[in-house]
Amino acid sequence: MGVTSRSGIFVVGVLAFMTLFPHKSERDDLLAGISSGKTRVVDLSYAINEKLVPWPGDEKWFEAKVNATVEKNGYFTRSFWMLEHYGTHLDAPIHFPPGKTTVDQIAAKQFFGPAVVLDVSAEGAKDADYQMPVSRIEQWEKKHSRILEGSIVLLRTGWASRWPDAGKYRNQDAQGKMHFPGFSTEAAKLLIGRGVSGIGCDTLSVDYGASEDFAVHHLVLGAGLYQLENLADLREVPEAGGFLMVAPIKLEGGSGGAVRVFALIEGQK
């Protein structure tokens, strides 16, 4: 990537950050604190390899090949093949109808936004088919404030503790049906109405595991939002006050792809 391209991305990120964090002292402290260590940068992505948890039925998901070695060629390179929806990844709107936008067409400003974390780990531990209701969003807003337009809403189910054990993570029954928590359609509709940029989860899907119609996918992607799935442990990200930077692969025509997701959090660990 050239200097001009990197500069352009940086400018977009800073402008989005300034717009979505209107209080000058708050946003300046977060940005300035990165180099000093006062702001923590938490990576919410899993490293990509062949040992991650694929969707049931996928026969091939990742393969890497060494093309050159330092010993033989004087430098090291590899080539790789992988599914668009594998590991920590982003679903672009085109992934499910009526969505149309491919991953490379998503506006850059949508990749930066305040983090809203909805913790349903206790509910998920009791009911693997839990679908987060609207009331949990209302509780969050009563405690913090109305969810800002451009926010990125993450569902913390606690399922990351099962990663990368495919059996525990998928939690399939005798019929092969998966069981893990997700967003309800009513909650998805409310978040769309709030004007959020995207939603995410620490499970295989934003729809609960037993879903057969993927109603949340159709609603959210159809509204032009994106989805983040298989996020790494979200315990370090506070319910409010954090800021997310989402960096998906810019794959032309892609239905999604691998993504790095970073949370900026005030304070040292």
Give an overview of the whole structure.
- The chain has eight helices and twelve strands.
- Helix 7 (185-194) runs parallel beside helix 8.
- The protein has one domain (3-266): Glucose Oxidase, domain 1 (3-Layer(bba) Sandwich).
- It has 269 residues and is α/β, with parallel strands linked by helices.
- Strands 4-10-9-7-5-11-12 form a seven-stranded mixed barrel, surrounded by four helices.
- Strand 9, helix 8 and strand 10 (226-229) form a beta-alpha-beta unit.
- The two termini are 32 Å apart.
Write the layout of secondary structure elements.
Layout: H1 3-20, H2 24-36, E1 39-43, E2 62-68, H3 70-73, E3 77-82, E4 89-91, E5 112-119, H4 121-126, E6 131-132, H5 134-143, E7 152-156, H6 166-170, E8 182-183, H7 185-194, E9 198-201, H8 215-222, E10 226-229, E11 242-248, E12 256-266
Parallel strand pairs: 5-7, 6-8, 7-9, 9-10
Antiparallel strand pairs: 1-12, 2-3, 4-10, 4-12, 5-11, 11-12
Helix pairs in contact: 7-8
Please outline what is shown here.
This protein is 28% helix and 24% strand. By secondary structure, the protein is of the alpha/beta class. It has a single domain (3-266), classed as Glucose Oxidase, domain 1.
